[in-house]
């Protein structure tokens, strides 16, 4: 599905989110001052690039040695076309040595285990990020979360940015308005901007509606048991 809209994906996101998605990603990545980061559902590499920007800003404001904040981001995504767009953005900024994009399914990250029989020898990441991706991992979302968990250091960070269905009860009139926007406006405008791929944006509407509330998802994470 994402392969078919990859070339227009960034533009459509900016329009539908009124450019607020840039700020949302910045909030998610701002406190991640880590060296080795795994970015799941990296798509067109917006989060990976934001991580590099955040680290660069920190290095100029808090250190005279930019090497103190060297960062390597491994971005994974199942859509090759999305990755292709991301690589062009990375190459344009000359960040090929700091960001690597590879095709992978979050439900099976075994290729990134250094030694399946010895977890202590695995390549472990300081942090993992997922922006607008965990909602699309169906079925077996728990399996994907456990696969990511296996690749994070014991004191590492998992940062997830995701949509959930707004409600009038908890969000008042703005929540109701957001619900109408997601259900009716997003598929219509998304279909026009993507060249008629309205079905993809009906999926967006449905996947948001079916995703757990923030409290439910937090409980799911806290109660998840991984081998």
TrEMBL record:
SUPFAM superfamilies hit by this protein: S-adenosyl-L-methionine-dependent methyltransferases
One BP annotation, GO: methylation
InterPro entries documented for this protein: SAM-dependent_MTases_sf, UbiE/COQ5_MeTrFase
Keywords: Methyltransferase, S-adenosyl-L-methionine, Transferase
GO-annotated molecular function: methyltransferase activity
CDD domains in alphabetical order: AdoMet_MTases
Record Pfam families: Ubie_methyltran (PF01209)
Protein's recorded name: S-adenosyl-L-methionine-dependent methyltransferase
The species this protein was found in: Fragilariopsis cylindrus CCMP1102
């Amino acid at each position: 599905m994402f392969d078919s809209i990859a070339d227009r994906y960034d533009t459509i996101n900016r329009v539908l989110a009124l450019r607020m998605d840039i700020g949302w990603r910045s909030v998610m990545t701002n406190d991640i001052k880590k060296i080795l980061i795994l970015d799941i559902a990296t798509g067109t590499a917006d989060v990976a690039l934001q991580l590099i920007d955040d680290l660069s800003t920190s290095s100029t404001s808090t250190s005279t040695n930019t090497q103190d904040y060297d960062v390597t981001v491994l971005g994974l995504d199942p859509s090759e076309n999305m990755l292709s767009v991301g690589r062009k953005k990375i190459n344009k900024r000359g960040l090929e040595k700091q960001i690597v994009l590879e095709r992978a399914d979050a439900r099976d990250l075994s290729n990134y285990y250094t030694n399946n029989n010895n977890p202590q020898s695995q390549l472990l990441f300081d942090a993992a990020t997922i922006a607008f991706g965990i909602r699309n991992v169906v079925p077996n979302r728990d399996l994907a979360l456990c696969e990511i968990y296996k690749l994070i250091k014991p004191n590492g960070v998992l940062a997830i940015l995701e949509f959930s269905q707004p409600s009038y009860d908890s969000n008042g009139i703005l929540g109701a308005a957001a619900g109408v926007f997601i259900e009716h406006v997003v598929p219509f405008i998304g279909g026009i901007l993507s060249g008629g791929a309205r079905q993809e944006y009906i999926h967006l509407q449905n996947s948001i509606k079916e995703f757990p509330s923030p409290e439910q998802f937090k409980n799911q994470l806290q109660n998840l048991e991984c081998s």
